[in-house]
Amino acid sequence: MTDDPRVSLLIVDDHPVVRDGLRGMFESAPGFTVLGEAANGVEAVAKAGELDPDVILMDLRMPGGGGVDAIRELARGGTRAKVLVLTTYDTDSDTLPAIEAGATGYLLKDAPRDELFTAVRAAAQGRTVLSPAVATRLVSAVRAPRSPGEEPLSAREREVLALVARGTSNREIARDLFISEATVKTHLTHLYAKLGVNDRAAAVARAYERGILG
């Protein structure tokens, strides 16, 4: 047994089997309490407000509301919970937006259980936890010199851009991605800046030039 105070958890993943596995893992270990589960980012924000967990284990790519948008919403809402991303994705388009949005740590799902337990305890104390692969990517991203218009787009920005390329309106994009029109406009503003353009048509053209689209 441990003398450490118990860490309360909210588990967020769209796969029930994964949620069940994580719940069983943490409930069988001393020092943890699982307060609840959520199947997407929208549910996660609502449950976090209801349950007030110490740590939120957050997957990233989930139908009905992704993890990065949820992390941003939690940060804007001033939640005290620390978000520890637990996902299978370690690409720049996943890791950088999650950290920038406010995630305390980022682990991959192949992490050993003891490493996961240690990471959750560290996150609860506000310490940053990164898997070695993610840490290497972040260091490389910070050190790599970038020319104007070469900053990578986030996964959500790529989704928005792909819909723009199909001629989809802001309202339709908001509906398809389950986000507000204001959020769509924010994503467009960010991707315009990253691509070094000023409008939708130029963004699509630049994206084809850089191989982002097709």
TrEMBL record:
GO molecular function: DNA binding
UniProt entry keywords in alphabetical sequence: DNA-binding, Phosphoprotein, Transcription, Transcription regulation
Ribosomal protein as UniProt keyword: no
Response regulatory domain span: 8-124
Source superkingdom: Bacteria
Positions of the HTH luxR-type domain: 146-211
InterPro entries from the UniProt entry: CheY-like_superfamily (IPR011006), NreC/VraR/RcsB-like_REC (IPR058245), Sig_transdc_resp-reg_receiver (IPR001789), Tscrpt_reg_LuxR_C (IPR000792), WalR-like (IPR039420)
Modified residues (4-aspartylphosphate): 59
Record protein name field: DNA-binding NarL/FixJ family response regulator
